[in-house]
Amino acid sequence: MATVTGSIGVLNRIRMPKTVGFSKSQRKFDCKRSASFAAATIAGTAASVSVEVPELNSTLEKNGKSSEYSDTLFNLACPICYKPFASRGDPQVTLASTIGSGVECYTCKKLYFQNETYLDLTIASGFEEYSETMPATTEIFRNPLVPFLYERGWRQSFILDGFPGPEREFKMAQNYLKPATGGTLVDASCGSGLFSRLFARSGMYSHVVALDFSENMLRQCHEYIKQENIPKENLILVRADISRLPFVSNSIDGVHAGAALHCWPSPSAAVAEISRILRPGGIFVATTYIYDFIAVPVFRALREFYIRATSNHLYISERELEDLCRACGLVGFKCVRNGPFVMISASKPVC
Ligand SMILES: C[S@@+](CC[C@H](N)C(=O)[O-])C[C@H]1O[C@@H](n2cnc3c(N)ncnc32)[C@H](O)[C@@H]1O
């Protein structure tokens, strides 16, 4: 989707998507830090806007550079209080995020850091003393070797379990993601961005958020984006925990999660979060591994043992997946299977 850019000097680029085709829930901007914030709502036509954000300008000048990615904050929210970084009251939002500084939650007063690669919206962002280890299925992807290997054979090996291969998988996902066309798509647990890059390149979404917990996966994603010259205007890289998604409730048009559900520490907490952030009519599409022998009690017991030992929810049945979506308030469950591979979709009901 087209975006228009207003600029002040060399730095303060504020991108304003056309009203038509942007996220269906329009965000607004909190003027506290921007006495002279000016914005235009553009009805159907592209236009350039100039904005003055004095405080941010000085931060930008101090730091000397801004992120190359979209600096729009649109539907992003503080993962502690879920209040938007940009609040209701003004026309379409935006706030330049800057390397070395970050964004501050007006309510919690917490500063979330941004480096040249991603915006860190984990609760742990800024912890100095306290540290927390995630389950192994999350931690393993933080190891630098895994992102390096991931698209150099690791991901391709999923074909052995019935995954159709990235190109076909992308087309299947896009088909399910039609309700998100023109809106904001979150590629949750994007890894090295295999699908985020394809989504961004497709031009089908006003914004693509490549989101993962692993810093190294996001760095690898950034490398591929550079190598492949993927347009960055509608792309943002965010570090976040799937169980604490940094988005405003009812604001996201689509969430895609490729081969990740079985890696999440709590699939129910994750799907509940996905359900929270989806707008009514918004769509969730995911791929994972499915094993129906779980219906047999002995295997179910063994599975419980396996999950407790590994935190890996690899062995999940179709009925369980449907139940998971329904329990989290999603409807219209669909699935396509090929051996252990499954692609599911479900949407947030329109009230
Ligand atoms: C197998 S990779 C999938 C990558 C990509 N989506 C794909 O289709 O190939 C699983 C991803 O889930 C991410 N992940 C694991 N736990 C997570 C969590 N708690 N929050 C967010 N992402 C998580 C990992 O960092 C990893 O990148």
Automatic annotation (TrEMBL):
Its main location: plastid. Keywords: Chloroplast, Methyltransferase, Plastid, Transferase, Transit peptide. Gene3D superfamilies: Vaccinia Virus protein VP39. InterPro entries: Methyltransf_11 (IPR013216), SAM-dependent_MTases_sf (IPR029063). The keyword Methyltransferase applies. GO terms for cellular component: plastoglobule. It is found in: Plastid, Chloroplast, Plastoglobule. Residues 186-285 form the Methyltransferase type domain. One of its GO terms (molecular function) is S-adenosylmethionine-dependent methyltransferase activity. GO terms for biological process: methylation. This is Methyltransferase type 11 domain-containing protein. It comes from Dendrobium nobile (Orchid).
